[in-house]
Write a structure and sequence with these properties.
14 helices; binds fe (iii) ion
Amino acid sequence: MMRFTLPRDIYYGKDAMSVLKTIKGKKAVIVLGGGSMKRFGFLDKALGYLKEAGIETKLIENVEPDPSVETVMKGAEVMREFEPDLIVAMGGGSPIDAAKAMWVFYEYPDTSFEEILQPFSFPELRKKAKFVAISSTSGTATEVTAFSVITDYAKGIKYPLADFNITPDIAIVDPELASTMPPKLTAHTGMDALTHAIEAYVSTMNSPFTDPLALKAIHMVFDYLPDSYKGDTNAREQMHYAQCLAGEAFSNALLGIVHSMAHKTGAAFSTGHIPHGCANAIYLPYVIKFNAKCAKARYGDIARSIGIEGSDEECVKALCDKIDQYNVMLNIPKTLKEFGVLEDEFKAKVGEIAVNAVGDACTGSNPRPITPEEMEKLLTCTYYGTEVDF
Ligand code: FE
């Protein structure tokens, strides 16, 4: 038996946030990141709507990027004291991911972090609160997914939490919130969305329920990302929807080794963090060439859906060329070397990174199985920009 799960309601379009006026509840806790929602006036708007709905509110502010286990536990404690029947998470991926995890420990205070690490093993939520997610970036799609990434800084590990219990009840996809993203963030999050859709389409978990969402998202990203990057309002709006469609696809079809590699290299080098979407954008064409041995017909479908013609082999090559062109246009480097990772450090660490990447939760649904040795070769190709021919 398979399962396909999305939020019960997705409100989108101009002024989608005003649905908060009609929401039923008594007390809402609002989980926020660093302050952009406040600065741009979106928090006040949300508070105004919730007041109209007669809902008492309390803020949990300053969730850091890559939220920690401590932040989650502190937030859950605030929730236990305030006893909200609504959790409203607003902002980028981090506050929404953190709020999802807080929700679990609010409803189950005696559960430990270790107990929810096993994917799809969560206790049943919604006994105390429902969850509303309002996203301000166009990439992670956490407003519609069953995932949350929490970091244990003491152990230096990122925990990807996964369970349909943490799929939000209501997602609000209001394009006005995404209009404030700077160009670099627009580029990185846009390529993250493209990666989600492509990995979901070729995943071993792909299905007739997720394929149309993935293909439409891919089409829209190729159509709208260039103008969205330049700040065009309509293109921004379409990208906000495209990333959400990609999220609906990958929340149910899962991902592949582009994400495994991005997860394990993101914080691996002393020269600085590689932003998630940027890492994905760099790795994507290399991984397509590696996976094509097992999935060239699926990549052929993707290429033909965006107007590329030819045999599956020709389609794979043309699709990779197109991604390369987009990366150039978006000022994304072609290799890890170009990104600034030092050669000696790369060589010293690549073996261990390869083992970690193969062990990542996203590797299981990749269309082509991969050994640590192959992963090391693949990572080396992404460092020097050499051809993937194995
Ligand atoms: Fe991603």
